[in-house]
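Section 3.1 - Work completed
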Amino acid sequence: MNDISLKLSERTVTGKKVEKLRQEGLVPSVVYGGKADPIATQSQLVDTAKVVHAAGKHSPVHLMIDGKKKLAIIKAIDRDPVKHIVRHVAFHTIKQNEVITTEVPIILTNVGESEAERAGLVVLQALEKVEIKAKPAALPESFELSILNLASTEDKLTLGDIELPSGVEFADVEQDLELVVANVYEPSALQAANEAAGGDADEETVVEAENGEDTPQHTQNEESRPGGKGQAEPKQSNVDANK
């Protein structure tokens, strides 16, 4: 796990006035967690964008708030719907010895090199992330699965093909390891699915039947409440009225 850090300063501007901060190249944010009151903060847009890109919602971030160090994970990212610029970030503080639940991306490797693709077949990814539990130091940045050995439409990759590092577990103790991550398809099957959908089919339409419609990959127990077990997320209206 690479160390990701961001320098924050406490923010006094709230409400509609935060728009002026954005015009000055600053990103408003909030830091909450534990028993401490939420802290309204701000940081440079360029630095914040880099951290958001590097950490996503799965890697810990070392925060420096006016000289005070905190370890946190990003819980929410608000982007401009047109320019896609980061408008607001919500950080949730964590502890080094605390097991946390978060989503980690699944990345397919050796794309374009599999026997299936060389034979003219198509490999589609059905699952792009999965929830895991681990202490911050053990959190992987991603899981990589090679599609190199996929050869026919009978081949697939599942969650069971992921080798969990030491100290890492799936968040769901009853996680279905047969949940499909990637499948192999005949191009004609994709075309037929597209025609059946009136020309509006996409990869998700084609593969959703493999994992079941509306497979709940965002269901969470403890961490559906950003403060962890027994702690509810503070209402945004109470910590920041910038939306």
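Second construct:
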Amino acid sequence: MKILVTGSAGHLGEALVRTLRARKIAAVGIDLLPSPFTDVVGSIVDRATVASSMRGVTAVLHAATLHKPHVASHARQAFVDVNVTGTLNLLEEAVAQRVDAFIYTSTTSSFGDALTPPAGAAAAWITEDVIPIPKNIYGVTKVAAEDLCQLFHRNHALPCLVLRTSRFFPEEDDVLERRDAFHEENLKVNELLYRRVDIEDVVSAHLCALDKVGTLGFGRYIISATTPFTRADAAELGRDAAAVLGRHVPEFPSVYAARGWTMLPTLDRVYDNGRARRLLGWQPRYDFRSALAAVAAGGDWRSPLTREVGAKGYHR
């Protein structure tokens, strides 16, 4: 087995290459930026670079992308070039090289306006059946790339799975009001309830997808930490999230109080990872309960892999 990992200098790309190499699986990393985990310094927008990188490859883990924060710094055309044309280049070369598996890293941000119900309304319960309503060029291009993956499965029988990951970056929140209102760790642990995932669990989801893609053929899956909430909690989460959390995790108030932490007053959405756990056989290890136990014991709530990869910021 030889796996091509795109975006190998980024958070997820590095984590994937680290894990594959630790398992003695041949991995070729491609990225615009040089790094210890990048074998090919080049762009997926360049077809010749993609073609040469794909030789001898049996599977592709496509994590390279322009991200949501780049909306403020990059032209819309750049998003089309990288997220759409780059993905198309990879898919076409994967077919040409008879690659066995293609795993595309997408984002829960693709759901867009479906994630924000009116104030006081029930939290949106987000499953793969929710129709995306992208609200920026990032979301539009990620959905377009997902559709390209489906097209190549249908027309070329390329086994291809799409993983819609929730946020896993260690950087500060991109919304100033949230940064000002919460201690950074407090906010991220809160997010494990509904919109965050540890990078080690993201990596394990990709490996599960590689195992299942031949059987499943095509599918889209939400990759987020397992929430303690149920769909029946949605209405109350939109009014008093702390009360709901107290019923499901009664130890949380004392742990939070000891650290001066606070719970978010309401939640606007909850990502449900049930389909990924059922169909991919994915078993995420890091969630709100595990983080709370680690914090209570004076430990680090993040996985060892998250700490090893560290914070990188975003590509220029």
